[in-house]
Design goal:
By secondary structure, the chain is α/β, with parallel strands linked by helices. The protein is built from 15 helices and 7 strands. It starts with a helix and ends with a helix.
Length: 512
């Protein structure tokens, strides 16, 4: 009987194991199905027909959520492996690298006993070393400054005391580093001041939004000479990029917003090995008229790379006074119009144009960072025949396409700006598109989403000043917070106006 009972017990145990196995397999199948759905969503987000139209920042957010969901499923599998005491499956993951300059805090985990089972003493024969990234949340601290007073017991000549240190905010609480943190949080990390005030409040530091706004305004005033020096340096170049973007501004009298514009003037000579440091300067203007571009560019002469906005035409008008400007146009805009047509259905003519332009870009990728003379020679040898094919394609199909159709309008755009689109074949410094300046404008658009609008024209001007300096720091691989803290302290301590160029971000990079 005992054998029968044992057998029944073993059968019951096997049934339990089978049920558990089936449950695991079911959960595994469910996870696979969930992963497949996430992968499908990932592919749709990355390669769907609207991927090029969609907001790149929203696209990044979507990918973050998908990757987070996938990680949660993997964590579920790992938890089951630990519960069943199965070895965890190794997973390919981009864990990044930990920079050497970060401080290391070492901890040594010793066995519970260093006595061997035989009674002898264990000795170290090696070790396993692992590193993990740890974060100490931002901490506030108070710097207490004492200035002792001294007097002489032998006479009454007076009291001696060290002078008070200069401050950015007279009689105010913040150090220059604190103000720099507020600026970077608002203009680089896109955190409006009221949200920053909420974050500080969680750590017991109650700062009114208006107080933070006062700090920002004072900092913008002190940084204006550095911005002016940046703008002057850029306009001494012979080749720049320009673009504009909307800047909604509150119009208190009308109780609604009005549309101003940020005009971006950028330099980046790195693609052809130029030695001038990259930079960008934003200027706020009340409108988009070409007169604003003319005012901003006063004194500049050379090549200006722009999109096809008609407002730039006044820069090359015969009656314009000032140094001559040549306009180079953007192939990315021409290609974009053709790509839009291919999305609506079969469009062999537009697709042919896209392929020809793609061939131009393939050559540009090969010659990036080459000397201008090398770039020019390769373009004339390899790009010029492609451009000749584009001219033939354009002439052939433009004669047959309806002028009012999307294809006709796209072809008309290319024909209208054809001379400027071919400028890159005559100068090795010219880029094939205007993407350099478009990248610098993206943070402005992000900040616009979070802040919705600037509260005043003066607020938009301050926005332009600080955003210019922060984006120039980023273009030169300079930490904006470190630069702002250092620069504000230098200004407060009486940095000479005649040496203001020394404070430009690329000079800070050299000093560091």
């Amino acid at each position: 009987m005992s054998n029968a009972a044992d057998l029944l017990g073993e059968i019951a145990a096997l049934k339990a194991m089978l049920i558990a196995s089936e449950a695991r397999n079911l959960r595994k199948d469910e996870r696979i199905e969930r992963l497949e759905k996430l992968v499908a969503a990932f592919k749709h987000a990355a390669f769907g027909r609207r991927s090029e139209k969609s907001d790149p920042d929203q696209f990044e957010l979507a990918l973050e959520d998908l990757e987070t969901a996938i990680a949660a499923i993997h964590a579920e599998e790992d938890a089951e492996d630990r519960a069943a005491k199965r070895p965890a499956k190794p997973r390919a993951a981009n864990r990044g690298s930990l920079p050497k300059h970060l401080p290391r805090i070492e901890e040594v985990i010793e066995p519970e006993s260093l006595t061997c089972a035989c009674g002898g003493c264990l000795h170290c024969i090696g070790e396993d070393v692992s590193e993990r990234l740890d974060i100490v949340p931002a901490q506030f601290r108070v710097i207490v400054t004492r200035r002792p007073k001294y007097a002489c017991r032998s006479c009454t000549d007076g009291v001696v005391q060290a002078p008070a240190l200069a401050r950015l905010i007279p009689g105010g609480m913040p150090t220059e580093a604190t103000v720099a943190h507020v600026l970077v949080s608002k203009y680089a990390d896109h955190l409006p001041l009221y949200r920053q005030a909420q974050i500080y409040s969680r750590q017991g530091v109650d700062l009114d939004r208006s107080t933070l706004a006062d700090w920002v305004g004072r900092a913008a005033f002190e940084l204006r000479p550095v911005f002016d020096a940046l703008m002057a340096d850029l306009k001494r170049s012979t080749k720049l990029f320009m673009d504009e973007t909307r800047a909604p501004v509150l119009d208190p009298g009308a109780k609604k917003t009005k549309t101003g514009y940020f005009w971006a003037l950028a330099r980046d000579d790195r693609p052809w090995g130029g030695t001038a440091p990259p930079g960008v300067a934003f200027t706020y203007a009340h409108g988009r008229g070409g007169q604003h571009a003319g005012r901003i560019l006063q004194g500049f002469g050379g090549i200006l790379q722009v999109d096809g906005y008609a407002g730039y035409n006044r820069l090359i008008a015969a009656d314009r006074i000032g140094p001559a400007i040549q306009l180079a146009y953007c192939w990315a805009h021409a290609r974009r119009k053709l790509i839009e047509i291919t999305r609506t259905g079969p469009a062999p003519i537009a697709e042919e144009g896209v392929v020809l332009i793609r061939d131009l870009y393939a050559i540009e990728a090969e010659i990036r960072s080459s000397d201008p003379a090398i770039r020019l020679a390769i373009r004339q040898e390899r790009s010029a025949p492609i451009l000749a094919s584009i001219d033939d394609w354009l002439a052939h199909h433009r004669a047959r396409a309806s002028a009012k159709s999307p294809l006709g309008e796209a072809l008309a755009y290319i024909a209208k700006y054809r001379d400027g689109l071919g400028r890159f074949l005559t100068d090795g410094r010219v880029e094939i598109d205007n993407n350099t300046v478009e990248r610098t404008i993206r943070p402005i658009a992000l900040n616009r989403k979070n802040a919705l609008f600037a509260g005043h024209d003066a607020g938009a001007e301050n926005w332009a000043v600080i955003a210019s300096l922060i984006e120039t720091c980023k273009m030169n691989a300079v930490d904006p917070h470190a630069w702002l803290a250092n620069t504000l302290a230098s200004i407060v301590n009486g940095h000479k106006q005649s040496q203001i160029d020394d404070l430009l971000p690329w000079n800070y990079a050299i000093k560091v």
